[in-house]
């Protein structure tokens, strides 16, 4: 992975952590997420208008199909992750790591589906980054660290595992979709299709349907800022994917959890114990290995 690609991945991770920071503080999370996507479409449409309407002029059937397909995978990821958290019942320390396992599947799917190969060093780096990401979410002393048994008989555990698995297919579609030079057009239509799918999901829910524009009306500034961060995150991540392999891109992006924790520490004054320090080292070491590999 080049320094340029890594730089865009790290920037994307920072933007991802930033819009998630606002997302977690919102009252109606699904509506807020939908509102951010709406504003993201507005931002990219305005940009496209001043650049020869590139999202329409350079559009082709292949890009449209891949964007629609990726949108399905990513929307399913959000739905099933949400269901898993809603039903977690104290198993959050199991649900979270399962929901972020996509970087483990991606190297194998990329090898068989698009012929992408990575080095052993890169794969080990992905493992370190994932382990560090998991440990960052735990707020316990290092001496009290315990790993819970994964019981696939529980529905929320299956939901979380499915979410992590289905996301990996979306990542492969992303890699094909960005191609050599069409990352902006492709990303625009991914956002559009995800917005459409989320709209349909909201319309099916009578409670959410009543609050369709709640966040836009009551949290306008949060929607604008979150939408801007989301746009920058989506674009920079897919530009990095255009420059390097999808396996390394997805693995290195786990550093977003580190940014999320740092925001919690410096903005929300959350504790930063020995476990989180150790986890930080694992994430950074993992990203270094991915860069070297």
Could you report the average pLDDT, rounded to the nearest whole number? 88
Q: Please count the beta strands (DSSP E, at least 2 residues each).
A: 0
Count of separate structural domains: 1
Strand coverage percent: under 5%
Helicity, as a percent range: over 70%
User: Which geometry do the CA atoms define?
Assistant: globular
What does this protein look like?
The structure is a single chain. The chain is mainly α and 293 residues long. The protein has one domain (3-292). 78% of the residues lie in helices and 0% in strands. It has 15 helices and no strands. The protein has helices spanning 3-25, 29-49, 54-57, 61-86, 92-99, 102-114, 120-136, 155-178, 183-203, 206-210, 214-218, 220-243, 246-252, 255-266, 274-292. It starts with a helix and ends with a helix.
Short description:
The protein has helices spanning 3-25, 29-49, 54-57, 61-86, 92-99, 102-114, 120-136, 155-178, 183-203, 206-210, 214-218, 220-243, 246-252, 255-266, 274-292. It has 293 residues and is an all-alpha fold. It has one domain (3-292).
């Amino acid at each position: 992975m080049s320094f340029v690609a890594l730089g865009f991945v790290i920037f994307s991770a920072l933007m991802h952590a930033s819009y998630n920071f606002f997302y977690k503080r919102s009252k109606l999370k699904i509506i807020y997420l939908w509102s951010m996507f709406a504003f993201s479409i507005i931002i990219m449409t305005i940009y496209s208008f001043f650049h020869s309407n590139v999202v329409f002029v350079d559009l082709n059937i292949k890009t449209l199909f891949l964007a629609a397909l990726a949108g399905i995978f990513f929307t399913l990821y959000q739905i099933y992750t949400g269901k898993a958290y809603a039903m977690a019942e104290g198993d959050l320390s199991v649900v979270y790591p399962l929901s972020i396992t996509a970087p483990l599947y991606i190297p194998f799917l990329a090898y068989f589906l698009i012929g992408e190969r990575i080095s052993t060093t890169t794969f080990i780096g992905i493992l370190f980054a994932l382990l560090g990401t998991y440990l960052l979410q735990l707020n316990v002393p290092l001496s009290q660290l315990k790993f819970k048994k994964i019981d696939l008989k529980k529905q929320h555990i299956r939901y979380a595992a499915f979410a992590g698995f289905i996301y990996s297919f979306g990542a492969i579609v992303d890699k094909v979709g960005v191609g050599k030079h069409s990352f902006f057009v492709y990303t625009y239509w991914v956002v559009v299709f995800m917005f459409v799918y989320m709209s349909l999901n909201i319309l099916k829910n009578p409670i959410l349907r009543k609050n369709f524009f709640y966040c836009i009306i009551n949290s306008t500034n949060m929607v604008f800022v979150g939408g801007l961060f989301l746009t920058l995150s989506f674009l920079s991540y897919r530009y990095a994917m255009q420059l390097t392999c999808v396996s390394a891109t997805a693995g290195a992006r786990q550093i977003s959890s580190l940014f999320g924790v740092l925001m919690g520490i410096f903005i929300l004054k959350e504790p930063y114990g020995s476990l989180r320090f150790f986890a930080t080292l694992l994430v950074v070491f993992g990203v270094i290995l991915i860069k070297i590999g």
